[in-house]
Design goal:
Helix content is about 15%, strand content about 45%. The protein has 1 helix and 9 strands, in the order H-E-E-E-E-E-E-E-E-E. The longest helix is centred in the N-terminal third of the chain and has 19 residues. It is elongated and about 45 Å long. The chain starts with a helix and ends in a 5-residue tail after the last strand.
Length: about 140
């Protein structure tokens, strides 16, 4: 039966494309970075991108390295971005480092502000600041 073979071929191609085609999700770059600072504050310049086909607003959410626990002593400027499709912008994340510990790692997640559905995509990165003189 030629039609059965054709249907099988079409299903195989569709399955391959579904696996190969990347899902669109906001981007955060770099996803991991470590840096040394001469003070008790560290800042990183990160790039957030909008790969969606429409204008989107994203929020930056600082978290503990477990990617779940909200934390204090972190500032993200801007904390919310509205971007055109296929556009990217830079944000600055700044955080305090306890001088007694001389190092701090934080997570930063980028999430759509308003998106319907039970699963909201988020992209997270980890950033470590080390005070100078700590082997950094």
């Amino acid at each position: 039966m030629p039609s059965l073979k054709l249907a099988t071929l079409i299903l195989a191609i569709a399955a391959t494309l579904a696996v190969v085609a990347p899902a669109a999700a906001q981007s955060l770059s770099p996803l991991e970075k470590t840096g040394v600072t001469p003070s008790d504050r560290k800042a990183f310049k990160l790039t957030v991108g909008n790969p969606y086909q429409s204008r989107m607003t994203f929020v930056m959410v600082p978290l503990a390295p477990d990617y779940q626990t909200p934390i204090e002593g972190v500032t993200v400027r801007p904390a919310e971005l509205t971007m055109a499709p296929q556009f990217s912008r830079q944000v600055i994340v700044t955080f305090d480092i306890d001088p007694k510990k001389k190092e701090r790692t934080i997570a930063l997640c980028v999430m759509p502000k308003a998106l319907d559905g039970p699963i909201l995509p988020r992209v997270c990165g980890r950033y470590t600041g080390r005070m100078a003189g700590n082997g950094g």
